[in-house]
Design goal:
The structure is a single chain. Helices cover 36% and strands 19% of the residues. It has 583 residues and is of the alpha/beta class. The protein has three domains: 3-83, Elongation Factor Tu (Ef-tu), domain 3 (Beta Barrel), CATH 2.40.30; 115-201 and 392-581, 3-Layer(aba) Sandwich (Rossmann fold), CATH 3.40.50.300; 208-381, no CATH class. It has a ten-stranded mixed sheet with strand order 13-12-16-11-17-18-10-19-20-21, sandwiched between helices. Strands 1, 2, 3, 4, 5, 6 and 7 form a seven-stranded antiparallel sheet that branches. The chain has a two-stranded antiparallel ribbon with strand order 8-9. Helix 6 crosses helix 7 and helix 8 runs parallel beside helix 12. The chain binds adenosine-5'-triphosphate and magnesium ion (MG). Magnesium ion binds at residues 137-138, 572.
């Protein structure tokens, strides 16, 4: 016995010590077993004075098993004893069947006590890994994944995707390919050094994806994008199949201009402008418009006389009506045929004349900015991402993402997105996240193809941004709310939790909190993480590199864990100034 209970207030037990704490090893953070006539409880010493100490009641110990939380509290007459180290693993070790146990690290308080996580608990719900820069997030994440890959009989159903903001993880996982049992596939953007180049088939994108890529800022721009997508097939299918619909759109636009009441010279210029850009075999500037007696080309009919009149206005008006049709060509592309960003640009151009951008400056500005952005994207280095030679359907594309060049299934794939600017990185990560989420959601058997998406520097992508106003949802918030059911799980790794979407943060079930010192981050974490305690907060303020507070559904109780350095390490070292600065 180490003392007698003086009082119990809430979950704190106040003890008068019967041993001299100065003559024992440190009692701080030691676990105690508290036994009364009916029950046994486990507590942790968290305050110590010369003759007294305070114990935090953690849970019950029944049938050789520890459960966090308790229904009753110990009686004042209960005995309090230190727990023998051999029992500590039982309490905090979390050992169940090997396939459901993941070794996380060692306890910094108890020698040789391993701390495991419940594997299912950790990977079948969302996970957050937070900590200051240099606190050990990347090394620890690599270490945890390396421990995971030590398991045997991992099936081809494991799909771990890392969005690697700094290109760190290639070095930590490449070894998997040497061992031959499992495989790792690394994607990058540099054709000279990367074996696998990130590429995204434009035909697998939908209106929401284009809205992200073109940085749509107003909901009014969405109909233009939707219209553009409906027009894409006009530029892909053979002309004889689509000319009827193309002609109708051109004819409607020309008719609008003819009826606009603008000066004839302006009408002539606008109609000529449209027909110079968009024409078909059967409707163009050289199309013959017949009149009893003589034939003229469309271009000739647009002539304006010296009085500023277009004499053939009515003739042209009537002629153009013959091209009207109420039928629409096709629906939005469904990913079943190939098209390029250049086709999308033509379709956007066409959508702009359909919208009648000359009608108002506001429409022109909103629509034109999309064209400017699309052109910039096509011409930029990012345009190459969307240059995909051969048609591929969505399912094969996603399957191939996880196949190495020799056809082996890769359990972990890594997208090195370090060369992307913030906006592009965010768009690409969202596009992939949505692709995986929709794929998992459409699967015939729910959860048959799970995806675990780990986002380094998650605060760069998982933000409270304007997507909800534009496309009605934010993909990360959607995944954080619905993904668990379909097996799409987020792993958010971040040094700035306060910049993350609060919705996403609060949906995480497990947290590995490394050292966090910034008051804003502490306050945010305290406010947004359900069930976080003052003890956890106190621990993370002072944690050493590689030490974290682990808590959530995968752990029996909140625990401080020292995670081993991974081997091999990610390339995340700080610059060694003394070796750089001095010869
Ligand atoms: N488990 C560990 N044990 C001991 N030292 C560690 C451990 N993990 C990390 N460190 C030390 O901390 C350094 C920084 O680690 P790491 O790159 O993982 O930090 P980080 O939290 O990912 O930082 P950033 O937010 O800047 O990416 C490492 O180079 C290593 O020296
Ligand atoms: Mg890091």
């Amino acid at each position: 016995m180490i003392g007698t209970i003086e009082k119990i207030i809430d979950d704190d037990i106040y003890l008068n010590l019967t041993i001299d704490p100065q003559k024992t090893t440190s009692l701080l953070n030691a676990y105690v077993i508290i036994q009364d006539v009916n029950n046994s409880f486990i507590g942790e010493i968290n305050v110590i004075h010369k003759t007294t100490c305070q114990i935090k009641l953690l849970g019950e110990y029944k049938n050789n098993n520890f459960t966090f939380g308790y229904a009753k509290k110990p009686a004042l007459s209960a005995t309090v004893n230190l727990i023998d180290v051999q029992y500590i693993s039982k309490i905090i070790g979390n050992e169940s069947e090997p396939n459901n146990t993941l070794f996380l690290g060692m306890s910094p308080y108890f020698d040789n006590v391993k701390i495991n996580a419940d594997l299912n608990g950790l990977f079948s719900s969302h996970l957050a890994i937070f900590g200051n820069t240099g606190s050990g997030k990347s090394c620890s994440f690599a270490s945890i994944m390396q421990n995971l890959m030590q398991h045997q009989n991992i099936s081809d159903k494991m799909n771990i995707v890392i969005f690697d903001a700094y290109g760190e993880y290639h070095d930590a996982f490449e070894y998997l390919n040497e061992s031959g049992t499992y495989a790792f596939k690394a994607y990058g953007t540099n054709e000279k050094i990367d074996n696998n180049i990130i590429s995204i088939p434009p035909w697998l994108l939908n209106a929401d994806d284009y809205a992200l890529l073109l940085n749509v800022t107003s909901a009014n721009q969405m109909p233009i994008i939707e219209k553009t997508l409906r027009n894409v097939d006009l530029f892909v299918r053979p002309e004889e199949e689509v000319s009827k619909y193309k002609n109708s759109i051109i004819a409607n636009a020309i008719s609008d201009i003819l009826l606009s009441g603008r000066p004839a010279a302006q009408i002539r210029d606008q109609v000529t402008g449209i027909l110079s850009k968009f024409y078909t075999q059967s409707l163009n500037l050289e199309t013959i418009i017949s009149q009893p007696g003589y034939n003229r080309t469309f271009r000739q009919c647009l002539l304006v006389d010296e009085n500023g009149k277009m004499n053939a206005m009515e003739l042209v008006s009537n002629f153009i009506k013959s091209y009207f049709t109420d039928e629409v060509s096709a629906s939005t592309p469904d990913g079943s045929y190939k098209y390029t960003l250049e086709n999308f640009r033509d379709a956007l151009d066409f959508a702009l004349i359909e919208e009648g951008i000359w009608k108002s400056e506001k429409i022109f500005d909103q629509a034109n900015i999309l064209m400017v952005r699309l052109n910039a994207l096509i011409k930029s280095e990012y345009g190459k991402l969307f240059n995909v030679e051969d048609y591929i359907d969505k399912e094969t594309y996603i399957n191939n993402l996880f196949l190495t060049h020799n056809g082996k299934k890769a359990q972990i794939i890594n997208f090195n997105i370090s060369s992307f600017d913030d906006r592009m990185a965010k768009s690409v990560v969202k596009i992939f996240a949505k692709l995986f989420f929709n794929y998992a959601k459409e699967a015939e058997v729910k959860g048959a193809t799970p995806f675990n998406l780990f986002l380094e520097e998650a605060h760069r992508y998982v933000q409270k941004d304007s997507d909800i106003d534009i496309i009605g949802y934010n993909i990360f918030e959607r995944i954080s709310k619905e993904g668990r059911k379909y097996g799409v799980l987020l792993g958010l790794i971040s040094q700035r939790p306060c910049e993350l979407s609060e919705t996403c943060l609060s949906q995480c079930s497990n947290y590995l909190l490394f050292k966090i010192t910034h008051p804003n981050d502490i306050a945010f974490v305290e406010k947004s993480i359900p069930g976080i305690t003052a003890d956890v907060i106190a621990n993370i303020k002072t944690a050493l590199p590689g030490h974290c507070m682990a808590f959530g559904s995968a752990f029996k109780l909140p625990l401080l864990v020292k995670i081993d350095m991974p081997n091999p390490r990610p390339s995340s070292e700080s610059v060694n100034m003394s070796s750089v600065w001095f010869d």
